[in-house]
Design a protein that fits this description.
homohexamer; five-stranded mixed beta sheet; 5 strands; alpha+beta
Chain lengths: 138, 138, 138, 138, 138, 138
């Protein structure tokens, strides 16, 4: 019996939308005020959905504390109260869009989640109350 | 790498549930207080989900402002502060249920979204905190 | 020991902003799209705050069911799935603004709340996620 | 035209995470403070998603009141203001995890939903703002 | 310059509404399903508001971590994943209503908050999305 | 009849907690990860509450669009997608805490609100779902 289990974590971070191959003029044309070189920031919400069978003795797909610990160690500690452009190894050289943040988080989490015998199903990143992205791994 | 991107927009509107082939008695039997001929209304929330590959230079499936502009022009301007039964071309002759609102919004958005090279994935319409519908296009 | 107790109720209704002493042109100038003669509507949230001492045997300022029953009988039944301009006795002849809705609700509730030995403290009406009013009775 | 329709209901209940084949020591090791023999509790949110074609005369997949009545009769009355371990027939002998609550609710609802000609798509149970599960029936 | 600062904490707990001087029949008459002897429970939200002047060097009324630590030590550790009737020293002998929970929390927090040079202004306890209480200390 | 009217606006910004009279070591001791010299950021919510009598012809304390325009011109345009430490004139030389942001916003808004004949009652700034401040002007 396959269950989807979702854990929410949060991180507050600074970023700018910026393609390092372009000059400031082109960055402003493409990204508007999000290109501000002095940065802006968000309260990001991260929803990590895993799926798997229910362990009959525990009643769990996976212990939530164990899942939360993986998410915190692999991504939240790297993202929270950080500058996403300057300080996050897995976002180096990318435009730090919500899309790329979600893909980067997936790549950090996927091996660790597989390693405990379950499957990563979705990484959802909410940037504001009006926009979010979901990545399902391909 | 396929990403789902969701944009929320809102509209406040009046409507009634009402089948014009029926008399008031039958409308009240089927729709209860929602059939009130003097109308009632809602703060509707609209979540539009598109999917596509991430543009490597922009980091986007689509620029959110461009998506938001399409949604506003194609649907919000027609729905917001309007009477959904009387004033909305794409709802004429239909029961103005949340289901039909979602289908109507899909039909308005789908060609415009395809036209900018991405795919419409889901139209979700939230009528109250206790009920919403999702339409995936077929 | 004075406690403030708040109960939330909800109502979905149609209205328009409209001063019956003015012509349509002036109503549109003052109220914009909210003056639409075909109505629009909202999911209103109503927060009723009462205050009083805690009954030592019950642990309550007032039984919530009793308070909820008063709110439903005195205001929700008159407002929910109604046209606030046409169908609500206590709003007749007024501009149906959030301000006047809150004052009208206060006047409906205040005698009934006093009658059960507690005090009405605040009527808060939330029209959208971006605006609400509070009325404290004078 | 297939539509997904979701109805939210809520229930407040006590439970503990506890495997009756284990002693208290092992239960605490596996479930931590959630194993407290004196119970704890939650405000659970239940989102029931059904799918089906839109009835052209009604504009509905199913009348929301009818769906809500089924959910209340089949599950909410059994769960609300109850002890999930002691008082719920369909959870007897199971670890009362969010996963097992969702599966149990599915099994209660699925025949009744099929009986009115629509299909149960998803049972989502939200235990806290930070975790929820979804069950799709297999 | 007096600022009000509010910190939210959460606790999940079991309770029943029950006056130990009454028999079960009277408890059910007064408290309805909330009197269930097998308990039920809630996700409580606690909003603690303090007030004070802004420290010009820190920009704070009080460091949020320090305030959060006091709330956790004085109340959350005693309440979270507990049975409020059986396990909480400061609620013994009282009806465990939201009102009495708020008053009890105030009495736990007030000396500790005064001890760090600020003033406790309000304890707000949210039991469900539809009801909450506020206590201002007298 | 005095009514309190509240308008919500939002801004996304970068900041750091930092006292320019201190070295990095002392800033980290006092502000922890919030002192990160590479900045972090938030989705701030701003609730502006004004009070006044209801204009009998308009039904308003003040037209919401007029209030919203003042808030946007006086504060949101200066704060949104900005670095609060580097780019905001009214925060220069201050620790950019939520407290000081609220006081600064008050000082920007108060003359403009008075100028249209109403009174500023409260500026509430929500930094995360777990903390907010309120300033009442003294």
């Amino acid at each position: 019996m396959m269950i989807h289990l979702t854990r929410r974590e949060r991180f507050n971070a600074a970023h700018r939308l910026f393609n390092e191959d372009w000059d400031d003029k082109k960055n402003f044309e493409c990204f508007g005020k999000c290109a501000n070189p002095n940065w802006h920031g968000h309260n990001y919400e991260l929803f990590v959905t895993v799926k798997g069978n229910v362990n009959p003795q525990l009643g769990f797909v996976v212990n939530l504390k164990r899942l939360s610990k993986i998410i915190k160690e692999k991504v939240i500690e790297k993202l929270d109260h950080k500058n996403l452009n300057l300080e996050v190894d897995f976002l180096q050289g990318k435009v730090v869009s919500t899309e790329n943040i979600a893909i980067g988080i997936w790549e950090q989490l996927e091996p660790a989640v597989k390693n405990i015998g379950i499957e990563l199903h979705c990484v959802k990143v909410v940037e504001t109350e009006n926009n979010f992205v979901e990545y399902f791994g391909s």
